[in-house]
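Table 4 source record.
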Amino acid sequence: MDRNRPIAVIGSGTMGNGIAQVLAQSKFPVTLIDVAPEILDRAKASIDKSLERLVKKGALPADEKQTIIGRVKFTTKLEEVRDAQMVIEAIIEDAAVKKDLFGRLDALMPPGAILASNTSSISITELGAATKRADRVIGMHFMNPVPVMQLIEIIRGLATSDATLSETVALAKELQKTPVAVQDYPGFVANRILLPMINEAVYCLMENLASPEDIDTVMKLGMNHPMGPLALADLIGLDICLNVLNVLYDGLGDPKYSPCPLLVKMVKAGYLGRKTKRGFYDYNA
C-alpha cells in the first residue's frame, strides 16, 4: 500500500476508530467518515485517550501522539473516498445496510481501489455482489480492541482476486498484525467457535448452574482464558452477539446455533453490555 494515498474508514465507533488509529500509527493518511460531527468528536477523543495510554506505558514517545492524530482526517462527507486506495467499512452489523453502503461506495471509489469490510459474520460474497468490483472486495475482521489484538481474519469472497488477497495480507503485516486467511462461511473461524461458547455460557446462567462471576472464573482459571465469556459478551455487545448467532443459525441451519432465550430477552430489554452500562454485569459504578 502507498503511504502517500489515504485509506478511508467508514464508521467511527469502537472498531472504526481503532482501525483508524492503527493505520495512522503505521504512517498511513486516514480519512475517518461518519454521519455526524459529534460522533467524530467522540472518535477523536477515544483515539487520543488510547494513544495517551501508550505514552504513559512508555510504548509511544509523547511528541508522536499529535503527529499520529494529525494523520487522521475526520469528515462526514462520503465523497472523500474518491481519493482512497482502500476503504474499510466498520458500520453496524446489518447485511442490508452494508450492501446499500457498498453500492454507494463502489460508485464513488477510484477504479481498482479495494473495498474491505470489518464484518464479523456477514458474507463477503454477498457484499461483493452489491458492487461492480467484486474481485476487489474482501473481509478484514479486526479483533476488539483493535490497537491491542494481533489477529485479523482475512476473508476471501467467491470473486475476490488473488491480487486483492495478497495486497490485504500485506497491509495487515504492515500494521504489525497477524493475518489469517479464511473461507467465506457464516461466522468465519473466530465467531464460528467463540459465539457458541458464549451462548452456552448464557444457557448456564439461565439454568442457574452458577453466577456470572463463577461461570467466568471457571473459564479463566480452568481454561486459561484472559476474560470470561459473559464479560467478553458485555465487551462485544449483547446485540452484536445475538446478530452473529442469528447469522450462524440462518446460514448453517443447525439448532446448536440457536440463541439462548435469556440473551434474546436481555437484548430486547436494552441490556447490551458495557455500552449501555448493563449486561451480565452492572457497569454503572
